[in-house]
Amino acid sequence: MDAIVKKIAPDAAVRPSREQAEEAVRVLLRWAGDDPKREGLLDTPKRVVNSYKELFAGYDADTDEVLGRTFEEVGGYEDMVLVRDIPFFSHCEHHMLPVIGKAHVAYLPDGRVLGLSKIARIVDVFARRLQTQEAMTAQIADAISESLQPLGVAVFIEAEHMCMAMRGVQKSGSTTLTTTFTGSFKANATEQVRFMTMVRSR
Questions:
Q1: N or C: which end of the chain has fewer CB within 10 A?
Q2: Within a domain: 155
């Protein structure tokens, strides 16, 4: 899948400098109607660039490095591995407004397993990019499938989009749900039901 890349480099042009990025923030402040030279905004460009570096760190991440090594000593375990309620923060690629949600990720091992923290980290890699929820759901499943080669992967994401809550229709509290199933999960509706039941059980 062309959209799923190990590491996203900037477009053909060289990535802008920090100084250029800070100046872009000043331009936006002026466009919004404020004065970037007033005391409260003097350090805002620096803070925004610092926060963007953290919020969009996924562009510099390599999924192979994040998923890392796998383990074969699983004591004969062959059933579903599920990590649920993984919180994440992302930004929609259409308005650059926050997306806040939880991811639930499962796979059926085929002789090898991942360290559990790797699953949470791969969610963060794709969340920390400008995203659509649909693409992020598929990207997580594809990355795990490619790295681990399991019998199947299931990903369920539920999130609130601030572009719906803060602007436009302004419907706060509405939640978007997306799922992706591969391999045995995709072929077997019973496995899908079992996955969703485990996610929803408390």
A1: C
A2: yes
